[in-house]
Structure formats: C-alpha cells, structure tokens
Amino acid sequence: MPIVTVQQGPRSIELKRELVARITDAFVDTLQLPAETVQVWIHEVPADSWAAAGKLTADR
C-alpha cells in the first residue's frame, strides 16, 4: 500500500480534493493498484514556518 506525503502551505479544501484525486489516479494508472490502497497525507505548514532562499514564505 503506497503512502504519499505532500508538504505544502495551506490550500483550500477544493484544491486538496483535486490533488489527492490526481495523485491516486497516478498510482492506479502507473502501478495498476486499486485506488483503495493509495493513501495520501497532506502536511500543511504555515507561511511563518517555511522558508526558501533564506527568507520566510510569510515575508515574500
């Protein structure tokens, strides 16, 4: 059973639904797995707890 972890900033529930559907479809299509075996964990990190290129995302 594949478990996919996505780390990202907060997104709307609609975008998360689309994301998990597409990730699941990719595993079903590529690995020929039943959709029921694919698990997706979304770990949302606030903008003040994530940085890139030496700057907090909240400061961009």
TrEMBL record:
Residues 3-60 form the 4-oxalocrotonate tautomerase-like domain. Coiled coil: none annotated. InterPro entries: 4-OT-like_dom (IPR004370), Tautomerase/MIF_sf (IPR014347). Pfam families: Tautomerase (PF01361). Keywords: Isomerase. The keyword tRNA-binding does not apply. One of its GO terms (molecular function) is isomerase activity. It comes from the Bacteria. Belongs to the 4-oxalocrotonate tautomerase family. This is 4-oxalocrotonate tautomerase. It comes from Streptomyces katrae.
